[in-house]
Amino acid sequence: MKHTGFVPIIILMCISSCNTGNNEKAEQMDTIKLMTVDPGHFHAALVQKSMYDNVSPEAYVYAPGGNDLDLHLDRIKAFNNRENNPTSWIENTYAGDNFFEEMIEKRPGNVVVLAGSNNKKTDYILKSVTAGLNVLADKPMVITPDKFPLLEKAFEAAREKNVLLYDIMTERYEITTMLQKALSQKADLFGSLVKGSAEEPAVTKESTHHFFKYVSGSALVRPPWFFDTNQQGEGIVDVTTHLVDLIQWECYPEIILNKSDIEIISARRWPTILSKDDFKKVTGLEEFPPYLEKYNIDGNIQVYANGEIIYKIKDTWAKVVVEWKYMAPEGTGDTHYSIMRGSKCDLFIRQGKDENYRPALYLRTHTNEIDTDFINTIVHDLPWKGITVESVGDMIWKFSIPDEYRAGHEAHFSQVTEKYIEYLEKGNMPEWEVPNMIVKYYTTMEALKKALE
What we know:
The chain is of the alpha/beta class. 33% of the residues lie in helices and 25% in strands. A hairpin with a 2-residue loop joins strand 12 (300-313) and strand 13 (316-327).
């Protein structure tokens, strides 16, 4: 499949929109139009798995051409053609080596969506916001410490240009995480978050992922650059972005954080080993591309997709761990573990065999004052109705969550996008969002520096 440019009527629209001046900017925000740039990651398509109010069905894609672009368009087409609740996106595609410059010049939309190779993402972000465009970016926004100052500059440019720069934090919309956060703020139940220690942090978040997986019912084909940490980023700066974000979001809700609040105690990294057969099954390629040969040892590539960070945020000890394996055993899947330790009880999430690999929230009390009736009384006042608890062990309770609240990882992209649209319509975000995004990426960058020492 080859895409050489927009059809003539689209080009005329682009030329017209570029000459309308400042008044056109105000009109643009009445109708949001998406411009997806170099969509190498399937997350770019998941932003368009749903339709949205106040978002034009006419969307634009700027890319260098090739397999990544074709896969992206195929995913959008599948959303449009699905039997249940099909979407109605109209994709206008420009493919060429100058795709980014063409997007900046023509700008037929007002929101840039970035989800692809991460080594250029920080540059794309800075250039987009400097041009006066809003940006919705998949994580991570930055993967190397030398580019962190550019990200800080991008947030400053976004403020000066009055546009919104936001990253896609899907895990804030997972129901067990939302419950964990809400219950940790109930002093009668949770008490207060303990300070913890290096050996037993106050909050720990661990996640295990797999290179081979199914998305929207089909085996996921990953681009070969996904296994190049110079392009994708190491695990300690990639998936850990979600975990660090959740620690800030849950432990210090709506509090503005500063880089001085972070102290990296220790950090380490280690590789996942993939054979050529593993690589072929995930990418469809028979051989490793030349840029992966530097990771090739005895016919297998070493992918530094795993990492651990132990750090302090203010006076709270925290730990995050991310691990990537090739493929989950039959009947299993990705797993997540999270614990918040309170003075009265601990709130922990498990997603293992006993939970049928669905996240489940538990409570372990430290006092006899807490019982089933008391917990149910607390839960009754939460915004999610129908949730109950049952005793599953000595001073341990499990929360029963109706399926209606389990949207799933793919649906969380729509939820994040809806929140971003809300911010666009208001013209601002909560005052803590931007400083806390900066602190989040400062944490991962400092951790990578520590791990490489």
